[in-house]
Amino acid sequence: MKSQVARWGNSLAFRIPKQIAIQLDLKPSTTLVCSVEAGALVVRPVREVKEYSLEELLTGPTEVEDEVDWGKPEGKEAW
């Protein structure tokens, strides 16, 4: 697919064809990283992954709910 470079203020821009946007699940707020590799423009979406510290992972819930009585067993549940 071809796309044409156009002026956007003091910068240059190009449109991403719809089929490519669908394949890459690009949205208007998607962050892209642009680089030059072997003389070619490479544009990659940034897939941000939240990294948790060990302390965050080991921290349990601060509020404990009371046990809920769902009534007497129905059917063949094993208690």
Brief sketch in words of this structure:
The protein is α+β, with helices and mostly antiparallel strands.
CATH fold category name of the domain at 5-47: Pemi-like Protein 1, Chain: D
Q: Helix fraction?
A: 10-25%
Radius of gyration: 25 Å
Shape: elongated
Largest sheet: number of strands, sense, barrel closure = 2 strands, antiparallel
Structure classification? alpha+beta
Q: What are the secondary-structure elements, in order, as H or E?
A: EEHEEH
CATH architecture annotation of the domain at 5-47: Ribbon
Global mean pLDDT:
88
Low-confidence stretches: none
CATH class of the domain at 5-47, please? Mainly Beta
Helical region count?
Answer: 2
Major sheet: arrangement of strands = 1-2
Strand content: 25-35%
Distance between the termini: 62 Å
Number of DSSP E strands: 4
Keywords: DNA-binding, Transferase
GO molecular function: DNA binding; transferase activity
Protein name: AbrB/MazE/SpoVT family DNA-binding domain-containing protein
Organism: Gloeobacter morelensis MG652769
